[in-house]
Amino acid sequence: MKYEKIISDKLNELLIKNYDAEKGYINAMKEVDNVNVKDFFKKRAEERARFARQLRTEILTYGELPEDSGSIKGALHRNWMTLKATFSSNNEETILTEALRGEKASLDEYNELLTDSSFPSRLQDLLREQRNAIEAAINSVKMYEEVVS
Q1: Which one of 1, 27, 133, 136 counts the least CB within 10 Å of its CB?
Q2: Which residues, other chains included, contact 43 with Cβ-Cβ below 8 Å and sequence gap of 6+?
Q3: Which residue has the higher pLDDT, 149 or 133?
Q4: Of 108, 107, 109, 103, which is closest to residue 145 (Cα–Cα)?
Q5: Which pLDDT tens digit goes with each residue over 3-18?
Q6: Helical H runs in the chain?
Q7: What is the pLDDT of residue 31?
């Protein structure tokens, strides 16, 4: 398989995860009442949309086609979050807990990709920047969880 295709395939997997995260945050935003938490989810959705645009650009530079939507697994997770929140006594805390779980999974994905030394340094810098933003979001989620509990 061509080098460009290998990198693009890995980036497409990450792109799909960012689509899923963006959609998840948009759904979460609709499920909470706390204005600060709602704003946090909105900013995370916008951030993930930006990540997706950056990844799409990278994929195109390798001459490959970027994916256009999220995964079935992501859709199932969003539906699970909505269902769980519906039956939970503390809706916001439940949604924040699920957001934290999703962010930790994203962080693992980024960390795994960053171990691949075949990526050009420019791409590693982009992935590291996105990973660092996810780490910051994890810390924020933890803070919001304490506020709403």
Answers
A1: 1
A2: none
A3: 133
A4: 103
A5: 888 899 999 999 999 9
A6: 3-31, 35-61, 72-87, 91-114, 121-148
A7: 84
Give the three-class secondary structure for 116: coil
For the stretch 83-131, pLDDT in tens is 455 445 557 888 888 888 889 999 999 999 999 888 899 999 999 999 9
Amino acid at 107: L
DSSP helix/strand/coil, 64? coil
State the Cα–Cα distance between residues 61 and 131, nearest whole angstrom: 21
Terminal Cα-to-Cα distance of the chain (whole angstroms): 50
Q: Tell me what pLDDT residue 53 has.
A: 96
Phi, psi dihedral angles at 107 (to 5 degrees): -60, -40
CA 13 to chain centre: 12
Smallest CA-to-CA distance from 117 within 107, 108, 127 is with: 127
Q: Which amino acid is at 66?
A: P
